[in-house]
Specification:
Length: 117
């Protein structure tokens, strides 16, 4: 199990481009989980989303306007994040992007932080 996850709210819908899947017959809820590589400056992480969250209608409760980061850190604790903190989340890079180390940066906007588990 991973030490931390963090829910991030987005200003618009985002459809996860799956780099890996756990199929419905492999997961206890019976739905498919999508995983996409992402980088939060300095750290490689994954976005995890059940595919059903992208099938629901748009509106205030639109789950496609949230991503769940799977992290090796408890991000709220490690970076002092609070609800409403701005966090840069980079997605859809190439192999060099994924493997190249990056300096830490928290000054660029991508979404607002939600619950950290």
């Amino acid at each position: 199990m991973t030490p931390g996850t963090l829910n991030v709210s987005l200003s618009e819908r985002y459809v996860v481009t799956a780099d890996a899947l756990i199929h419905s017959h492999e997961y206890f809820t019976g739905e498919t989980l999508k995983f996409q590589r992402c980088r939060v400056p300095g750290f490689r992480m994954f976005i995890m989303r059940p595919d059903s969250h992208e099938l629901m209608e748009t509106g205030p409760g639109d789950y496609a306007r949230f991503i769940e980061l799977v992290s090796p850190l408890k991000l709220r604790e490690a970076w002092g994040l609070q609800d409403g903190s701005i966090l840069e989340v980079q997605v859809e890079g190439d192999e060099q992007w994924w493997t190249t180390p990056e300096p830490l940066s928290s000054s660029q906007q991508a979404g607002d932080c939600g619950a950290d588990r």
